[in-house]
Design goal:
This protein is an alpha+beta fold. The protein contains 12 helices and 19 strands. 30% of the residues lie in helices and 22% in strands. A hairpin with an 8-residue loop joins β16 and β17. α10 crosses α11, α10 packs across α12 and α11 packs across α12.
Length: 478
């Protein structure tokens, strides 16, 4: 049984209802904010039977203003009466709603926290819902008495999930995620034991644009490896950006305000994801270099978070401090050491990151990618400086025992020294190819590109020409 309320999220694959797609399109055009979520409680009532574990589910009327025609657990919003006695209003609400909707009388002490979900911002009615797990008390019977449902009955989680798969019933993401977990357990005792050590953190789904429309996006929690570093992929895939820009959240937001490295393009959904992953608090935004696919959103993110932007380029700086070689920053259990690594651009910075686990990693920006090779953006970029920066990174990897390179685009690189050696070897081979092209009669950068990059997609030739110009400049100086 998963010990964390987020562990099941990767298994969710619900399609976005057409109603929400229409709302998303409308909201995107209007730029309006979502409603404030109302506090509510829901109860996952379970029992053991010969057929296995069963849970009590309600099928809501189609006329209901929220979750119409959905299959849900008993529950509802917290009323003023729930806090009148000075106790826990959430548990009081859970007990009251269960009694009103099922006739089952519960004790607050029998409720075990299980999950915490917040309705997506796109919804016009929103709820901040805490889910509690409890067994059906001995001698009691659940009945459909709420008046808000078409039907209600006990069901095995697997049967409910199968009905949803056949489109016989409709489930919202919280209900489906909980049923997926219940389906893995054989008994009430197993569930209640798992609930004792369960970590509960809020899940706020977001609607984001995908290549083929809209999709739900769910938070990804930090791995328990002590690294305190995670990435959020920006929605800007392309020939130069690969899958998109990797925005790095450095520091565990449960321990304090993290640092955000390279917030990427100015995209509202991406900014919302960054703020969510940071628990709404950011100590600083850092930029590895000036290119817009890394820096465009920096000022806006800093405005939302009320924090500075630190960059080697003063034009991008927000606040009193820039970002220079040797600067040390600490945030939420992670230490960063800035190292100037020019070459891709003149302002390129790499960041040596040491987590609470004592293990070192390097955030490389576009100095080193996770797939393919980078461009020397002549005249701002410089090949001689790039070679020096490759040597510096190799020395950092050796001296600090670096286990991973964390690039601005593409996957993490576990063979850091091997990848850096390949990058140097690739550049040297390209120089040999440029020399050969010149010897064969090529005179302009475009002519060199046509010979040296003949096997490369022509859409990449303009970028290749920048690197060729840097190579020609290097050869002329050499």
């Amino acid at each position: 049984m998963p010990s964390h309320s987020w562990d099941v999220l990767a298994r969710l694959s619900l399609a976005v209802p057409a109603r929400l797609v229409a709302l998303a399109e409308e909201r995107r055009e209007a730029g309006s904010a979502g409603a404030v979520p109302a506090l509510s409680a829901s109860v996952i009532l379970v029992r053991d039977t010969r057929a296995g574990l069963e849970t009590y589910l309600l099928h809501r009327h189609a006329r209901m203003p929220f979750a119409a025609s959905m299959v849900v657990f008993p529950g509802g919003r917290v009323d003023s009466v729930d806090g009148a006695g000075g106790g826990d209003p959430l548990r009081t609400c859970a007990v009251r709603e269960t009694l009103e909707e099922t006739g089952v009388r519960l004790q607050q002490d029998d409720l075990a926290p299980w999950a915490h979900w917040i309705t997506p911002e796109i919804e016009q009615r929103r709820y901040d819902t805490f889910f509690f797990m409890t067994a059906l008390p001995a001698g009691q019977v659940a009945s459909d008495i709420s008046g808000e449902t078409d039907s209600a009955d006990w069901e095995t989680p697997r049967a409910a999930l199968a009905a949803a798969e056949r489109s016989d019933i409709s489930l919202m993401p919280p209900t489906m995620s909980i049923l997926l977990e219940l389906a893995d357990v054989d008994s009430v005792a197993g569930l209640m034991a798992a609930a004792k050590d369960r970590v509960i953190e809020p899940v706020l789904p977001r609607l984001v644009r995908a290549n083929d429309g809209w999709t739900f996006a769910y938070p990804r929690r930090f791995a328990d490896d002590g690294s305190g570093v995670r990435s959020i992929l920006a929605p800007n895939p392309g020939p130069m950006t690969l899958d998109g820009t990797n925005t790095w959240i450095v520091g565990d937001p449960r321990r304090g305000a993290p640092i955000v490295v390279d917030p990427g393009p100015l995209d509202d959904d991406h900014l919302g994801a960054i703020m969510e992953a940071s628990n709404g608090k950011i100590s600083a935004v850092l930029l590895t270099h000036r290119h817009l696919d890394h820096s465009e959103a920096a000022a806006e993110l800093a405005r939302r978070a009320g924090c500075p932007v630190r960059a080697a380029d003063p034009e991008l700086q927000v606040g009193p401090d820039g970002l220079a070689d040797g600067d040390v920053l600490e945030a939420a259990g992670v230490r960063l050491l800035a190292k100037a690594t020019p070459g891709h651009t003149s302002d390129s910075i790499s960041l040596l990151c040491t987590g609470a686990d004592g293990v070192s990693r390097v955030l490389t920006g576009d100095m080193v990618l996770g797939r393919g090779t980078t461009v020397i953006t002549y005249p701002d970029g410089d090949l001689a400086a790039y070679f020096d920066s490759l040597d510096l990174l190799s020395e950092i990897v050796r001296s600090h025992g670096v286990v991973e390179l964390l690039p601005g685009h593409g996957p993490r690189v576990s063979d850091a020294l091997g990848w850096l050696s390949y990058y140097r070897r690739h550049r040297e081979e390209r120089l040999d190819q440029v020399r050969a092209a010149l010897a064969a009669g090529a005179r302009t950068p475009a002519e060199v590109v046509a010979r040296v990059y003949a096997d490369v997609d022509r859409t990449l030739w303009p970028a290749a020409e920048q690197s060729v110009r840097a190579q020609l400049d290097y050869l002329a100086r050499d």
